[in-house]
Design brief:
Strand 1, helix 1 and strand 2 form a beta-alpha-beta unit. The two termini are 14 Å apart. The chain has a two-stranded parallel sheet. It has 70 residues and is mainly alpha-helical. It is built from three helices and two strands.
Length: 70
């Protein structure tokens, strides 16, 4: 599952919680979640929250889709 973040303009702890929940539900079905298109500011939030340690972020949706085929 690709989670396109390019339209996300703001993300606080609630958004991080929603992202974590979506990724957990995705993993439970055997389909990894691939967040894509986060801005540098968003990546700082995700890094501080430690999400970069458990998820693979992609710079673009296209890159995330391409990685699913590997």
């Amino acid at each position: 599952m690709v989670l396109g973040l390019s339209g996300l303009t703001y993300c606080d702890s609630t958004g991080v919680t929603v992202l974590i929940g979506a990724c957990q539900r995705s993993r439970a079905t055997g389909s990894p979640a691939s967040p894509a298109g986060a801005t540098p500011d968003q990546m700082r939030v995700f890094t501080v929250a430690g999400l970069d340690q458990v998820l693979t972020f992609h710079p673009s949706t296209e890159g995330a889709v391409a990685s699913l085929g590997r």
